[in-house]
Amino acid sequence: MASVLEDPTLERHFKGHKDAVTCADFSPTNKQLATGSADTFLMIWNLKPKARAFRFFGHKDVVSSVQFSPSGSLVASGSRDRTVRLWTPSIKGESTVFTAHTATVRSVSFSQDGQKLVTASDDKSLKVWSVHRQRFLFSLNQHTNWVRCARFSPDGRLIVSCGDDRSVRLWDTTSRQCINTFTDYGGSAATFVDFNSSGTCIASSGADNTLKIWDIRTNKLLQHYQIHSAGINCFSFHPSGNYLITASSDSTVKIVDLLEGRLIYTLHGHQGPILAVAFSRGGDYFASGGTDSQVLVWKTNFDAFNYKDVLKHNRSRVNPDPPPHLTNIYPRSPHSHTVSPSSIQVNPSVADTQTVDPHVVEIGQSLYPKMGGSSHENGVPASRGWPGGRSFQPPHRSSGGQEEEGETCAVTFPLEEHTGFPSNFASTLEHIVEQLDVLTQTVAVLEKRLTLTEDKLKECLENQAQIVLQVREAEEREAESGSCNSSL
User: Region (Disordered): which ranges (predicted)?
Assistant: First the structure.
């Protein structure tokens, strides 16, 4: 067990969101943290003390997922407004809008080379996009209910996804086919899924409070944890692959030692369900966010273990080099883990050890207020199944009549650079966006029909090939029988 000096410590405490924090991700340089919220805003926090934070306007509804590109030059976000945005994390606040989903976008994830983006949606589909060309590539459509999460494997050859159909699916990006399905979630939805750092295992969490780890090479369940008293909303692998951190609606963050197969820390600090958690790229920090609108940044500390010392307690290994991975855990057979009273409870009493709340710079505010109606009235479907049992709504206008925060045009530019538009520009733009939405839905229907047509054509060709083969066999038998009769 780690000593007191090795326990996680709370380093920073960020306040700036006006509603639940739903997602978080560190930049590759560990200098910035991106968070999304039910307040419709994307925020970029600079981790240096006294540095400014940036609030980006663009989405019209809950921001459900956010991720930095591997180079750090872009930030992708998905929203309940059915759009995906690629942001430049700078003072200009530029973003490109992707519209092909017809329902809430739950998840966004870059491939390791940064060339592709996979998105998961309540329209039951996954979509893969070209980041460089900024265009839609293809869909994956075998889920039968909402898709909660999708992630690329480290080598980009596979995609793993999970959803409300209670399945975890593994996809081949070359053949665009589902090559494996894990269905071990009973009557509950699978909420989150990801690959470990080596790409040999996947972990998945469920609304049934469980965390499961699978070896995708043998299709075997390696570990099964039941350590939370409520649903697990999110988790993150440590870059070493030896630890995993979970965020739950029971208001706790828990850290699991995957080498020893046990819970080592339970962290308190949030008031209410915790919806987001993420390790930094180097693993020395992790962040958490929840329905209390707070973002907490923690110093990891426990990752400073000497792995050779850890290996002395790991009977399945003989040679301590290289450091062990998940498939070398003892015992190797599936086993269940429950809450251990010996795990260390960390309950920080100091909210912020570094700075006061950072100055927030607002970027990309709309030049024109949106005319009337709520997000639901304007065609964005109402939320279902958001963790914590809340139905998140965007902020409303203040009594002073000021413009509602988060309202923006459907296409975002560096708006501070554009002035002098005619007065009917906003209504014309909204009309164009409505027509694009109709076109998007039409394309989605045509895509499904084309897929069905291709399947039927393939089936017909296979049947025709079988008929031709049967005819040839019959002709050969007839010819053989004829030759036998002539010889007689």
Answer: 371-407
Q: Give the residue numbers spanning the domain of 461.
A: 433-481
* Amino acid identity at 242: N
Instruction: State the pLDDT confidence band at 175, using cuts at 50, 70 and 90.
Output: very high
| Position 422 in a domain | no
For the stretch 71-112, pLDDT in tens is: 999 999 999 999 999 998 888 778 899 998 999 999 999 999
The residues near 115 (Cβ < 8 Å, ≥ 6 apart) are 130, 131, 132
Residue type, 179: I
Asked whether residue 30 falls in the same domain as residue 175, the answer is yes
Dist CA 107 CA 128 (whole Å): 12
Residue 87 in 3-state DSSP? strand
137 and 268, same structural domain?
Answer: yes
d(CA 192, CA 161): 8
Q: What is the pTM of this model?
A: 0.70
- Domain-embedded: residue 218: yes
Burial letters for 236-260: b for 16+ Cβ neighbours within 10 Å, e otherwise? bbbbbbbbbbbbbbbbbbbbbbbbe
Q: Tell me: do 242 and 347 sit in the same domain.
A: yes
Q: Is 29 helix (H, G, I), strand (E, B) or coil?
A: coil
Distances, alpha carbon 488 to alpha carbons 80, 482, 483, 485, in Å: 81, 10, 9, 5
